[in-house]
């Protein structure tokens, strides 16, 4: 039975690599759109804010399907649930103001960062996961900083663009590392 696990892990790597590249592209585009929209909660900005965790749900679904036999599917299901709650929470918080959005986003960043950290640790044997582990840890710290910035006199959404950009870069690094790991096999 142990002999099938590496084959399943290798088989999941191309799908995971494609998903990571898509997540990088989405994060970069999303961050650019958020920066262009400014820090005001317009209808477009609210939609953009809800779209990010909604995309995370879709990405986790794709990830879970590709990882059925080779990965931590339960953690991915937990991530889906947390991201759905975040999307709803951000939609509700968007009616109250930037500070409330930052609080919800911060809570989501902490919890989803912990999940990403655990998934990355569980996938270490696959290769290319150190960036996911680091990204999960940074997400936890970023979430705490969003809480802090929500208490400032004039909280801003611009830090969320940096958060998305950095997360996207980590996904790209992992995709590249997975490519290199696959060639060595």
Descriptive notes:
The chain is mainly α and 185 residues long. The chain is built from six helices and no strands. The protein has helices spanning 4-37, 43-66, 73-93, 98-122, 130-150, 158-184. Helix 1 runs antiparallel to helix 2, helix 4 runs antiparallel to helix 5 (130-150) and helix 5 (130-150) runs antiparallel to helix 6. It is elongated and about 45 Å long. It starts with a helix and ends with a helix. Mean pLDDT is 87; it is low at 1-9.
N-end to C-end Cα span: 19 Å
The parts where pLDDT drops under 50 for at least 5 residues are: 1-9
Mean pLDDT: 87
Q: Largest sheet, described in full?
A: none
The dominant shape is: elongated
Short description:
The chain has 185 residues and is an all-alpha fold. It has helices spanning 4-37, 43-66, 73-93, 98-122, 130-150, 158-184. 82% of the residues lie in helices and 0% in strands.
Topology, please?
Elements: H1 4-37, H2 43-66, H3 73-93, H4 98-122, H5 130-150, H6 158-184
Helix pairs in contact: 1-2, 1-6, 2-3, 3-4, 4-5, 5-6
């Amino acid at each position: 039975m142990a002999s099938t696990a590496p084959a399943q892990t290798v088989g999941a790597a191309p799908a995971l690599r494609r998903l990571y590249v898509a997540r990088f592209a989405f994060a970069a585009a999303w961050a650019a759109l958020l920066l262009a929209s400014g820090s005001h909660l317009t209808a477009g900005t609210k939609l953009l804010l809800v779209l990010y965790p909604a995309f995370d749900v879709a990405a986790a679904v794709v990830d879970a399907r590709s990882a059925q036999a080779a990965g931590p599917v339960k953690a991915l299901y937990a991530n889906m649930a947390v991201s759905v709650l975040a999307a709803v929470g951000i939609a509700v918080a968007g009616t109250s103001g930037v500070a409330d959005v930052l609080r919800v986003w911060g809570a989501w960043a902490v919890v989803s960062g912990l999940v990403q950290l655990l998934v990355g640790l569980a996938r270490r044997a696959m290769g290319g996961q150190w960036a996911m582990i680091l990204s999960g840890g940074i997400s936890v710290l970023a979430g705490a900083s969003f809480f802090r910035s929500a208490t400032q006199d004039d909280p801003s959404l611009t830090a969320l663009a940096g958060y998305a950009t950095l997360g996207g870069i980590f996904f790209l690094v992992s995709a590249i590392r997975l490519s290199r790991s696959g060639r060595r096999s």
